[in-house]
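User: Teach me something about this protein's shape.
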Amino acid sequence: MSLTIILTMFSFSLAMSISPGPVNMMIISSGINHGVKKTMAFISGATIGFTLLLVLIGLGLMNVINLYPSLLEYIEFLGASFIIYMGYKIATSLGDITIKKSEKKVLKFYEGFLLQWLNPKAWIACVSGVSMFVSSSSDFVIFVSIYFVVCYASLSFWGVLGQKVTRFLNTPKKLKFFNIIMGGVLIISASSLIIIKMI
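Assistant: First, the predicted structure itself:
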């Protein structure tokens, strides 16, 4: 495999992983509310969940999707519903910046894992990535390895960014306002996806 192909795989993985999406918005929100350390479980779940989805699509799930294209629509609907639910959790979380009271709202590993499986962006990234870069088993292993590392680093970046922003969101009122905005963005984006599919 040429260096050009590897760099292209890296660029694709970086563009898809670091660009804003539901998972990244939840990570930055969690980083602000709880810090990077408590957000790492969610980041790990999201990275592993995405990587497993990528592996399964590469191993043949793509054939099932091609046979039953409506399956992807159901996944998108379920995903949008889950994102709305998570947006609601963020929007209604307390603006209290004390650790004791905010511990209840810490995002879990399984939520990150599940969110990737219900995230339309993740499915699009996996299907398009596999179709573009995988022509042999060695290509597949290299692509998955690159994507895993890039995804983990990109999601961690959003967590660090969230923690750094806390210096500006240093009062309960500012934090509560931020939570409402972030939760609202998730709810609106997921709702618009459902509306578009219904039209």
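Now, about its shape. The chain has nine helices and no strands. The chain has a mean pLDDT of 81. If you'd like, I can walk through any region in more detail.
User: That's plenty for now, thanks!
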